C-alpha cells in the first residue's frame, strides 16, 4: 500500500506480513526516536522482515537529483567517447579508408567471379593487381630520383664556382658580408640541431607513412575477403520487418561507392594515358613516371589535377626549356577544362548519380574536415545521403 517498485516506480502490492507492519507516525508528546530505542522501532516499522525499518519510497525518475545525476553521467560518457575517438582518429581513418577501398574493389571481384573464379582467387587477383600498381609506381620514381641526386652531387662544385664568379653576389658580399654570415649560420649549433631535427622528422613521417600504407593494405585485404559476411552482419542489426528494404538500400549504396571508385580510376587512367602520349611527343624526360604521378594525383577531387600539372610543368622546365614549360601549362589547362566539363560529369553521372554542384560542395566540406581523405570519401557519402533522402525521407514526408 503506497510502496513502489525501485526499478520502475510503479505501485506494488506487498504481502500481508509487510502490510501489517507499517511505520507508525509520531504521536503528540511521543519521545524523540533519537533518544528512545523503542519509539525508534515503532516509527520505523521494524519487524522480522525489516529489522532496520521499512525503506521509504524510491526517488522517481523526475526527481531533480536523479535527473541531474543521469544527465551528468551522460555528459561524462559522451565526453569520454569523443576523447577516445579523437585519440584514435588515425586508426579510425585507416579503417574507413580500407573499408572504402574494399567496397570500391568489390565490383572487380564480383566480375571475376562471373568468369567462374572462387571468391578467394578473385580477391587475390584484384589485390595482386593493386600491389603491382603501387610497386610499379614506386619503381618508376626510383630512377629519376637517383639520377637527379647523382647529377646534383656532381654539379655542386660547378654551382659553387658560378656563385663565386657572380658579380652581383660578390658586390652584395662586400656590402653585407653574406658569405661570412652564411658560414657562421652553417657552423652554428642551432643550424646543425635544426638540420638534424628536420631530417629526423622527415624520417618519422616516411616511416609512419609506410606503416599506415601497409596497415591499410592489410585491412583492405581482410575487408575485401569478408565483405559478404560484414554486410550480412550489419543487415541483421535491422528489425526483421524492415531488413529486406535496408538490405536493398545498403546494396545500392555499396554499388554507388564501387561505381565512384571505378569512375575515379577511369578518369585517372585517361589522364595518365593522355599525359604519357603528350610527354612522349614533347620529348620530356621521365614521361612514364610523370604520367603515373598525374594519374595518382588525379584521384584527388578538385585539386588533384592541378597538383599533377604543376609537378609535370616544373619537371619539364628543369629538364628542358622555357618552351617546354609553356607548352605543358597550355596542354594541362586545356585538358583540365575537357576533363571537368566533359569526362568527369559523364563518368560520375553514370556511376554515382550525383549532381555536379553537390559533388563540389561535398568535396569542399570533406576536405575541410579530413583533408585529402575527406575529399575522397565526401562524394560517395553525398551519394549515399541523397539516396536515403530520396527513398526514405521524401516518401515519409508525403504521408504526413
Task: Report on the architecture of this protein.
With 400 residues, this protein is an all-alpha fold. 79% of the residues lie in helices and 0% in strands. The protein has helices at residues 16-19, 37-44, 64-87, 89-114, 119-165, 167-176, 178-187, 189-225, 227-236, 243-282, 287-297, 304-319, 322-351, 356-399. The model is unreliable at 14-20 (pLDDT under 50).
Output the keywords:
400 residues, extended, mainly alpha, 14 helices
The major sheet is characterized as: none
Order of helices and strands: HHHHHHHHHHHHHH
Give the oligomeric state. Answer: single chain
* Proportion in helices: over 70%
* Alpha-beta content class: mainly alpha
Radius of gyration, CA atoms, in whole angstroms: 35 Å
Instruction: Supply the number of helical segments.
Output: 14
Strand content: under 5%
Query: What's the overall geometry?
Result: extended
